Amino acid sequence: MHTLLFFFTFLNWLNTHVIIRNESALPVYKVGDNETWAAKSFNDKDWSAIRDNTASQIFWSRTHLDLHQVENVLLPLGLQIEAFGAFEVYWDGVFIGRNGQIPMKGKPEIPGTERSYYSIPDSLIKPGIHVVAMRSSQSLLPDVQRSIAFKIDRYTNLLTRPLITMAYMNLMAGAFLIAAIYYFFLYLNSKRRQSDILIFGTICLLFFALLIMEYLKFHVTIPYPEFFTRLEVIGWLTFVNALLVPLYFIIQFNFKKGLWLMLILLLTLLLMYGSNYHHYDLTARLYSLAMFVTAFIVVLNGIVQREKGGLIVLAGLLISALVNRFLVYDYGLFISFTIIVLCMLYLHSIRASVIEAEHQNALLLSSRLQLELLKKNIQPHFIRNTLTSMMDWVEESPKEGARFIQVLAAEFDIMNEISAQTLIPLSKELELCRQHLSVMGFRKEINYIWEQADIDETQLIPPAVIHTLLENGITHSAPLPENTIKFILYYSVSKDAYQYIFETVAKNRPVMTGRAGGNGFKYIQARLTESYGDKWAFTSGATETGWKSTIQISIK
């Protein structure tokens, strides 16, 4: 898009003909109202180069323009005037148009627009000096001293060139609006709501608004008293973008001192606003400069840290700075911003590829955990020991043997049901634990006791996490003198987290080395990471009454 804009800007430049020899001609002013002041031959040597505060009075201005020889292909010529107030325009004493309405017969001034266009009669176009006289009033902003600017070109060019420029800017604005809407939807519909996506969508929306406000003067008629309101809005949009663009790079490049840098940038921008109040173009340029400097600091630091995309973004920032420096401000600002946004989009594509790779790894991890969960209950020694016990029970007590088979089948059914899931209701996990205790009760002929306190069975939990703690308690504990082993599960919730405490009340079997956790603990940690990222904590250790494990999951 920006390449096309460069191209059409260049074509427009080629089609611009310099007709006024003294393009920086300065007007002279006189307060009062006399129709003879419009004449080309009138002597205005005693008029003032400064208008002063004219209050609600009528005043005249006269500007001497020196024209080149005009080719016939440029006819009819048009005159573009940029000035505040309401005024009538005379070319060499001939009335050619008005902008707004000067106060007359007790009626108040009807303000004109800041920019207006007039057709110059072909008979009045000759090489040499011509006089543009303006009968004006500026009663709504009498204290604003703004000079008058003139431009002469083919009349149709004056009317159509802004429309062509506006068309390309509207295309660009539409692209940014669509991007903003897309990234807002992406943020709202994402389970992991990433701040950089929200910031990028906001930047696109603000840039869309910036483009619309800059070229709003071609869409609607803006009276000259509202001219500065539009510039104020443009300034604040640039101000916010100057903050958000470096913030986006700070997030993408993991800048460690980002908070301090953003604070310094904010104070700098506020200082620029205060010290250059009402100097709108200068303030916007300074905002852009502060944004570029801050972004350069962040990107250079990212290159030092070997962050992906650092060199590409640095090249984009350099190109953007050169464009903003050498092109006309109205074009350079938007083209440079577009290059920056493309750099940001490139960084987002890198982040998206990383997230996709993480997702693929998560799928692989989930598959491995699913296989691990199934292996836990079909390992050979468990099956062999369970079948041996089952045979003994069937021979000694067929009725109890049949119940043993039913309990084992129920445990396998639950295990098969939950093996492919990432999170399951706590009620299903507790049912699995009770079935497993029944199986192990038959096998080991130990009285296993299950207790629970303040349990919210609607909570979700990774499958077989409590079940794994239960297995560890059975494997590494010896029964108390009453041939019992007690298991107690507590649940509690606070403002920041909720936690599960699993206690085994029994004698701890002696071990040769410190019990830091084997495959069971690794399985628990992998399952917690799969579901909660790094927002969890797991501790486990011996107590005076047996063993205690705690799982804490952060809510924030």
Beta-strand fraction estimate:
15-25%
Could you say how many structural domains there are in total? 3
- Tell me which CATH architecture of the largest domain applies here: 2-Layer Sandwich
Can you tell me the CATH topology of the largest domain? Answer: Heat Shock Protein 90
Note poorly predicted spans. 1-8, 10-15
Largest sheet: 5 strands, antiparallel
Order of secondary-structure elements: HEEEEEEEEHHHHHHHHHEHEEHEEEEHEE
Would you tell me the overall average pLDDT? 81
User: What's the CATH superfamily of the largest domain, by name?
Assistant: Histidine kinase-like ATPase, C-terminal domain
Helix/strand class: alpha+beta
Q: DSSP helix count? A: 13
Query: Regarding CATH, which class of the largest domain?
Result: Alpha Beta
Give the proportion of residues in helices: 40-55%
Question: Kindly, what is the distance between the CA atoms of the first and last residues, rounded to a whole number of angstroms?
Answer: 42 Å
Rounded to an integer in angstroms, the radius of gyration calculated over CA atoms is 40 Å
Summarize the SSE layout with pairings.
Elements: H1 2-14, E1 28-31, E2 59-67, E3 77-82, E4 86-91, E5 94-99, E6 115-120, E7 128-137, E8 149-154, H2 155-188, H3 195-214, H4 227-252, H5 258-275, H6 280-304, H7 310-326, H8 329-378, H9 380-396, H10 398-418, E9 424-425, H11 426-444, E10 447-453, E11 460-461, H12 465-475, E12 477-478, E13 484-493, E14 497-505, E15 507-508, H13 519-532, E16 536-543, E17 546-554
Parallel strand pairs: 10-13
Antiparallel strand pairs: 1-2, 2-7, 3-6, 3-8, 4-5, 4-7, 9-11, 12-15, 13-14, 14-17, 16-17
Helix pairs in contact: 1-2, 1-8, 2-3, 3-4, 3-8, 4-5, 4-6, 4-8, 5-6, 6-7, 7-8, 8-13, 9-10, 9-11, 10-11, 11-12, 12-13
